[in-house]
Specification:
19% of the residues lie in helices and 33% in strands. The N and C termini lie far apart (42 Å). It is built from four helices and 15 strands. Strands 2-8-7-4-5 form a five-stranded mixed β-sheet, with no helix packed on it. By secondary structure, it is an alpha/beta fold. InterPro entries: Metalloproteinase_M10B (IPR053002), Unchr_Zn-peptidase-like (IPR021917). It comes from Melanaphis sacchari.
């Protein structure tokens, strides 16, 4: 009997989304980590990662490739092989990640010195976290007995240049700002099959007051500020370090929206 047990996936399971959560347990003592090797269907190794085993249980997040994905789990002398299949869902109904840049702004979000706050990295963070929410939705649906149903995230984060200036955004009531951005996004677009998950690049914390921040959603648009975007992971291997980061935030220069966590 294999001492590695996968509790939320099965061999040959088909996924319609790429970033997935794997839960499992091990019947082995005195082992603190499990190794996962990820191979394509032609035998090419795509990745190798190490994950903590705590009280004989583990959780792993991986990014599947289109087609067959061969996974090899190893802990101590125990090895478990399994295959997962990623088939993209074909649908016109999607969630579109969006990064909105004001007319007079360069698109760089507020961040610590030496942190990559480029437009591209903002899109990386938004896209990854959209996939994490997609994954979480699937897992919660599965836990309630509905299968791993979730929404479809578009592949790329769209970059939209707004006609609004930073000063105008800072002075607008959040509801009026939401309405204006909603009109800009849906102008000439078929918004009946698309919902927007949008973020304002110009959010700014001056040490006492927060400017250009919004957290409103309804209809086809959820609109947020980027005051804490610097805390988000940019790639999969940064997810756990970001969640486990215990560094105190210098609230004199950066927004801390963690409710003192």
């Amino acid at each position: 009997m294999n001492k590695i047990n996968l509790t939320n996936i099965t061999n040959n399971e088909i996924f319609t989304y790429s970033t997935i959560l794997i839960k499992g347990s091990v019947n082995i003592h005195n082992e603190s980590s499990i190794i996962l090797k990820h191979y394509s269907n032609n035998g090419k190794q795509l990745a190798e990662s190490h994950w903590a085993v705590i009280k004989n249980k583990f959780k792993i997040i991986i990014e599947l490739k289109i087609g067959d994905n061969m996974l090899v789990f190893k802990i101590g002398n125990e090895v478990l092989n399994t295959k997962l299949v990623y088939k993209q869902r074909v649908t016109n109904y999607t969630v579109c990640p969006v990064y909105i840049i004001c007319a007079d702004h360069d698109g760089r979000f507020q961040a610590p010195v030496n942190h990559d706050n480029s437009v591209q990295n903002a899109c990386n963070k938004i896209t990854l976290c959209s996939k994490l929410i997609q994954m979480l939705t699937a897992e919660k649906m599965y836990e309630k007995g509905f299968g791993k149903k979730t929404f479809q995230v578009e592949k790329e984060c769209r970059i939209i240049k707004s006609s609004l200036t930073r000063r105008t955004v800072f002075n607008m009531h959040p509801e009026k700002l939401w309405e204006y951005i909603a009109r800009e996004l849906t102008n000439g677009q078929n918004s009946k099959t698309r919902k927007y998950l949008a973020f304002l690049s110009c959010t700014y914390w001056d040490g006492q007051n927060l400017h250009g921040h919004v957290a409103l959603g309804g209809g086809g648009l959820a609109l947020f500020g980027t005051g804490c975007l610097y805390t988000w992971p940019s790639k999969l291997e940064e997810v756990l370090p970001c969640f486990m980061n215990m560094a105190k935030v210098d609230t004199g220069t950066l927004l801390d929206d963690s409710c003192f966590r």
